[in-house]
Specification:
Helices cover 78% and strands 0% of the residues. By secondary structure, it is mainly alpha-helical. The protein has one domain.
């Protein structure tokens, strides 16, 4: 069964933009989770269980979508850990850039769902670093929601109209 999941994941990963509904939103969430997890050099696998459980809540118990968010988060963390063209600064920059393009994604930053990942850390410096990241994300969310309020409303109305015409 595990092999089937991995094959399915690799297939979806290769064609994510085509097959995954709202893939940009999922990718954004994965970046936020990966940012907090990657800030801990000794991140535990339990972090990914937290991501999956949070995703099950977000996606109304859609196990496939929850697994996809978890695996996408794992991929991003692995890229950071392996220094494979991604680091924390690049991840932060990418999150900021996406919020400028799609400000409604700010609503997807949920500090309460990120707190349990910080609780897994044992080193005081790591905890402090992760808490600073959470504070940064909360400020970024608040600033985006405040400064881009009208654009967010317009974008959400367009999405609603598009979903009603399908």
């Amino acid at each position: 069964m595990r092999l089937v999941f991995k094959l399915k994941h690799h297939f979806f990963n290769a064609f994510r933009e085509i097959f995954v509904h709202h893939h940009g939103s999922l990718e954004f969430r994965a970046k936020v989770f990966a940012l907090v997890i990657s800030a801990n050099d000794n991140a535990e696998d339990e972090s990914y269980s937290i991501v999956k459980n949070t995703a099950l809540d977000i996606y109304d118990n859609d196990d496939e979508r929850a697994n996809l968010l978890m695996m996408t988060t794992k991929e991003l963390v692995k890229k950071v850990k392996d220094n494979n063209g991604l680091d924390l600064d690049t991840l932060i920059s990418s999150i900021q850039k996406e919020l400028k393009i799609v400000p409604r994604y700010a609503k997807k930053i949920d500090i309460d769902s990120l707190q349990p990942i910080v609780a897994l850390s044992h080193d005081i410096n790591t905890i402090s670093y992760q808490e600073n990241i959470l504070e940064f994300l909360q400020n970024l969310k608040n600033e985006t929601l405040s400064s881009k309020k009208s654009q967010i409303v317009e974008d959400e109305e367009k999405l609603l109209q598009e979903s009603n015409t399908k």
